[in-house]
């Protein structure tokens, strides 16, 4: 994936860098390099949304086309965005194409301020227990290889667009390339542990989606998240108040907590629905460091109140 510059991104003041927004402090004088002796990179805040749907998800509105998502994210100053359709990655190339077209348009006009989001390849898996789990991959190629493995376990039930909605594969200009005939919003015949292990085997990242919700949540289906469950983070829904989020934080222990929009319509794609990550640049590898709280990278606490 193309790496991005940090033009237009605000650096942290010393007081902000040491503020315990995520429960961890960063020493600005210490090296944040993964290798001793290297010059420490400049870490910046990047507004990030790691859970967004497109017209490939039948439950998403038809307004969730590739250019529309890119333009909306840019207006909301979302710098890094993962497309995470249900059980499929097929529209990730469209979003990447739309982002590059818009970025090139701004370059030509001399107005490229770095506001066009970088795109990560992702997928929201529904396991055989009906638990939603998000996977992120370093490249679209890695994502498509995972999708092939996933679809081997996808039941052959046909989609009915009149009941569930359309499942459209598009290009970067919203031209319809194909429709997925098999219903995507159903559980695959793989357990949550199997899916997590496969994601890790392929070099991906995983997080449990919206664990606070009554449906499709690990906590609702199986109970408390085990300490040895090998996910990289846990997502809380944007609908929680600051007080409710803090209560969930105490239940989840030391795990990295995310907030994403889970947008199925454009109006849900808002800056206040996602989070900020402290990174050197908006890339998969930097996100991996942040989710694991390594090399000074971290997820900043998204809610108004600072955790204890």
Describe what this molecule looks like in 3D.
With 308 residues, this protein is an alpha/beta fold. The protein has 8 helices and 11 strands. Strands 9-8-7-4-3-2-1-10-11 form a 9-stranded mixed beta sheet, sandwiched between helices. Strands 5-6 form a two-stranded antiparallel sheet. Strand 1 (44-52), helix 2 and strand 2 (80-83) form a beta-alpha-beta unit. Helix 2 packs across helix 3. It is globular. The two termini are 37 Å apart. Residues 1-35 have low confidence and may be disordered.
What brief labels describe this structure?
alpha/beta, nine-stranded mixed beta sheet, two-stranded antiparallel ribbon, 308 residues, 18% strand, TIM Barrel
């Amino acid at each position: 994936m193309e790496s991005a510059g940090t033009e237009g991104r605000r650096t942290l003041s010393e007081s902000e860098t040491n503020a315990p927004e995520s429960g961890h402090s960063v020493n600005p004088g210490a090296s944040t390099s993964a290798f001793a002796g290297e010059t420490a990179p400049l870490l910046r805040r990047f507004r990030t949304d790691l859970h967004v749907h497109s017209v490939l998800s039948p439950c998403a509105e038809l307004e969730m086309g590739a250019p529309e998502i890119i333009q909306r994210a840019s207006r909301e100053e979302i710098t890094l965005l993962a497309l995470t359709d249900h059980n499929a990655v097929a529209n990730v190339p469209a979003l990447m194409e739309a982002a590059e077209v818009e970025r090139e348009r701004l370059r030509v006009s001399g107005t490229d301020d770095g506001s066009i989001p970088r795109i990560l390849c992702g997928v929201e898996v529904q396991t055989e227990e009906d638990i939603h789990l998000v996977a992120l991959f370093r490249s679209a190629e890695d994502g498509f290889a995972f999708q092939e493995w996933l679809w081997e376990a996808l039941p052959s039930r046909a989609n009915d667009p009149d009941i569930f909605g359309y499942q459209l594969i598009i290009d970067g200009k919203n031209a319809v390339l194909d429709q997925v005939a098999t219903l995507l919003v159903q559980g695959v015949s793989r357990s949550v542990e199997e899916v997590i292990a496969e994601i890790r085997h392929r070099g991906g990242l995983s997080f449990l989606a919206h664990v606070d919700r009554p449906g499709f949540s690990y906590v609702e289906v199986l109970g408390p998240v085990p300490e040895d469950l090998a996910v990289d983070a846990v997502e809380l829904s944007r609908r929680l108040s600051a007080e409710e989020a803090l209560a969930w934080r105490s239940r989840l222990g030391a795990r990295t907590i995310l907030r994403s929009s889970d947008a199925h319509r454009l109006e849900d794609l808002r800056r206040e629905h996602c989070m900020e990550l402290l990174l050197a640049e908006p890339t998969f590898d930097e996100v991996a460091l942040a989710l694991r709280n390594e090399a000074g990278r971290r997820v900043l606490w998204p809610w108004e109140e600072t955790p204890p």
